[in-house]
Amino acid sequence: MGISRLGFIAGLIWFMAMDWQVLCMAQSNVHHYNFVLKQAQFTRLCETKTMLTVNGSFPGPTIHARKGDTFYVNVHNEGEYGVTIHWHGVKQPRNPWSDGPENVTQCPIQPGKNFTYEVILSDEEGTLWWHAHSDWTRATVHGAIVISPANGTTYPFPAPYAEQTIIIASWFKGDVKAVIDEALATGAGPNISNSLTINGQPGDLYPCSDKNTYRLKVNSGRTYLLRVINAVMNEEQFFGIAGHSLTVVGQDAAYIKPITTSYIMITPGQTMDILVTANQPPSYYYIASHSFSDGAGVAFDNTTTTAIFQYNGNYSRPSSIPLPVLPVFNDTAAAENYTSRVRGLASSDHPVNVPQTVNRSLYITIALNFLPCTEATCINSTRLAASMNNVSFQFQPIDILQAYYRSINGVFDADFPSEPLKYFNFTGNVTSINVATGRATKVTMLNYGEAVEIVFQGTNLLAEMNHPIHLHGFSFYLVGHGKGNFNNETDPKSYNLIDPPEINTVALPQSGWAAIRFVANNPGKGVVHPLSLGKALKLGHGHCSHREERQNKVTKYAPSSGVPAVLLLVLCNIASEANDCLIKI
User: Fold this and answer.
1) What GO cellular-component annotations does this UniProt entry give (predicted)?
2) Cα(253)–Cα(491) distance, rounded to whole angstroms?
């Protein structure tokens, strides 16, 4: 993953150097890629294992496009089980069939089969990513999406000398499918990762790792654009570079007012665009990342991954490499200090269009719960599950989008509660509260064009912890967040309705709340789910009936067919994908 110079010539045909099997053919504003899901061997932490990858690489290939482009990805599954791919943060206007969450918008791509995704970019500009949306396959099947400005436009900041993608991820010594299968069998939470990685390598602080530590080579005096992606399964991350200031200019493929800082806090699923200038004495400096986890008694990967920010030139290698000074793992104040500074750019070229009033409101509690389990392998006859408004998502034998399109009854109920059925002190002492939940397939129907506000409320059931939450098919504005229980009379007075950041993944603070707003203007089916609730388990995942040829179905969402009266908001409360239990619309 070498540094790529900016300023691409219009009409240039890009070929991915990461893997010769990737075909990226740029013709006008359409690109084509081939992804081959296959097993490959990797050695990390002194041990060799086989794992599922795309084109044999970890992380997988980077997709390059420009704002407004379309790309097609033909995914060939040469693995051993069904998989889907999700294009995290891509709105996919009127194209829900290619969004990717299994059993929601499509059935898994079975071994020996292939499926071509049509990925339509609209106003996204910056960095996004793609990943498997099946069980825990996301741990090894993921990669970056780099969206450059449209031809004839440029960045809202001085063009950097070069750019580089930085992907922070989890590494498990064992097979990730075996990890989640064991958790499903026992009803307990899955094991934590054995290390973190930067661009596929753990770094110098882990055994048997220093020879392959990732190196970012830079020229003195030059400014670089780092596209940072948190692909970690469960943990938010502090990230920094020793001796160097970071200027954050984008988040989730939207520009923000520049933030100069010594560290960032990035939640699973989020991306950040960061400018860094090589303005220190030529030497080696560590790039480092470790987890932020402020939940009492919550297991997490408490290790540090490193890469090397290495200056080009002739000089003596330092005897020791400095580490950045990052906040300690449970420094809630440091995390809040960073996230509270994020503001949308709100310029004439990149405006903020947050709804000033809303005509649809949802208040959704996020919790960890127990479900009864009669299987002999379950511990204490219970199974860990995630819930929203005390409903844990139940998969059906037919994908929900197909059921909606074909008006198939009995697949889902359109009665997801718009508020908790039972109110209590969500962030207080909950020892007397029943932690049991129930399973159902429920959706919320949204009228096209509605201005929607969702307030996510954290709870202390089973564990006090933060939850990354992702919305499919939309970006949204984070208008407010805070600690404790949301007060619908006083808290809205503190909303930022001037320059809130436009994002697709939000960090719901531990024992706190977060309020988002968006316009329901993308017909189809959207999914909302907490990423870290992937610690809970996927339930009711059975055979999915494959839909027929989709060509005649897509017209339902095409402009020529008119605007449907409603959209579906599917609320997934599963711990199926560790950090990817989000809302889709």
Assistant:
1) apoplast
2) 28
Element (H, E) at 177: helix 176-186
Looking at residue 338, its pLDDT comes to: 97
pLDDT value, residue 570: 54
Which tokens is 69 given? 């482009």
Closest CA relative to residue 391, chosen from 360, 425, 358, 362: 362
Q: Which of 392, 457, 451, 461 is nearest to 431 (CA)?
A: 461
With CA atoms as reference, report the closest residue to 363 among 234, 491, 502. Answer: 491
Residue 196: CB atoms within 10 Å: 27
Q: What is the pLDDT of residues 542-568, one digit of tens each?
A: 445 544 334 333 333 333 233 333 445
Residue 76 tokens read as: 């060939």
Q: Say if residue 108 is preceded by a cis peptide, omega within 30 of 0.
A: no
Listed in sequence order, the residues at least 6 apart from 106 whose beta carbon sits closer than 8 Å to its beta carbon are 84, 97, 99, 100, 115, 399, 401, 547
Q: What share of the chain is helix, strand, coil (3-state, %, to 5)?
A: 10, 40, 50
pLDDT at 380: 85
What is the DSSP annotation of 276-316? Answer: EE--S-SSEEEEEEEEE---TT------EEEEEEEE-SS-P
Structure tokens belonging to residue 240: 């920094």
Which tokens belong to 142?
């993921």
Matching residue, tokens 């079975």: 110
With b for 16 or more beta-carbon neighbours within 10 A and e for fewer, the 565-574 pattern comes to: ebbbbbbbbb
Per-residue pLDDT at 569: 57
**What span, in angstroms and rounded, lies between the C-alpha atoms of 257 and 152?**
22
CA angle 493, 498, 504 (to 5 degrees): 95
- Judged on CB neighbours under 10 Å (0-12, 13-18, 19+), 29 is middle
What sign for the dihedral angle of Cα 256, 262, 267, 270?
Answer: positive
Q: What is the pTM of this model?
A: 0.89
Q: Which two tokens stand for residue 301?
A: 């990967």
Going by the DSSP 8-state scheme, the letter that residue 393 receives in this structure is E
CB 276 within 8 A of CB 226: yes
- 305/202 Cα distance (integer angstroms): 5
Q: Which pLDDT value is given to residue 564?
A: 31
Dist. CA 556–CA 564, nearest whole Å: 8
What sign does the dihedral 454-457-463-465 (CA atoms) show? positive
Rounded to 5°, the CA angle 320-321-325 comes to: 125
Residue type, 282: P
Q: In the chain, which residues have pLDDT < 50?
A: 1-28, 533-543, 546-567, 572-585
Give the count of beta carbons closer than 10 Å to the beta carbon of residue 430.
17
